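Researcher: If convenient, please comment on what follows.
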Amino acid sequence: MKWQMISIVRDNNRDAPSILSCVEAGCVLCSSGFVEIMVNGKTFMLDESKMFIYPPYAEIAVGIVRPELECIVLDVDHQFLLNTLKAVSWSDRLQLISDCPIAPLSEFRIERINLMLFLKHDKNSENRLDALSDECLKQTLTYEVLAAFTEQIKIPAETKTSKDFIVMAFQAMFKRECANHRSVAYYAAAMNLTPRYFTTVIKEMTGNAASYWITKSVIVEAQHLMLDYSLSLKEITFRLNFSSQTFFSRWYRQCSGETPAQFRKRNKI
């Protein structure tokens, strides 16, 4: 998990806002200014004392940006997030976060988060207690962000259900195995579930079908690989376990609306 101050700047040389595909989850805390953010086709305005939460594999476009914009980005490793949230129910929040990913922060929450950010220090230490302390601080900050969001949208407390565990297991699996397995039946069988029941649960709990999440993860992974111009499309095809470059190009165009070559041309600096 990383903490860093950022300035988000729109690329004025483009006709459209830059697209950022995020593999990991995270949030952005705005301390001044404002920025227009498009998430999976929906537009939101993030301004002072508000928090923007983005889920894994989100497509984020940056629109209007005020020059005085200052934000803190909390970039969370997906596996760390899953491990941290094992103790709480969170699947019921996924669709709500997707529908409305921006929430205001109370003065109480801002003070607590700022304190944790002040305490956070990045250093390499061989002291196991230091490492454990740092890990606990990251987990506490994750809970604080979730609590701040829950506080604003008034989600009632709920106990974890078997469906929560199915979603969590699937989230962990498809991130790790999407390059080799793109079949819904594979993930259902891995959890000893029928494809029909598995599909129903994922759709109910996340708002999207299992096939959507699998395809989304492959697209984002492909985009990250394609931004490495030292890799040929043939090498990328091999890494993503497609049978041929032609098949990969056709699949990518059907899922994203453009060819791999067009994506590279559009994003080449």
User: Anything to note?
Assistant: Residues 3-17 have pLDDT under 50 and may be disordered. The longest helix spans residues 128-153. The chain has eleven helices and nine strands.
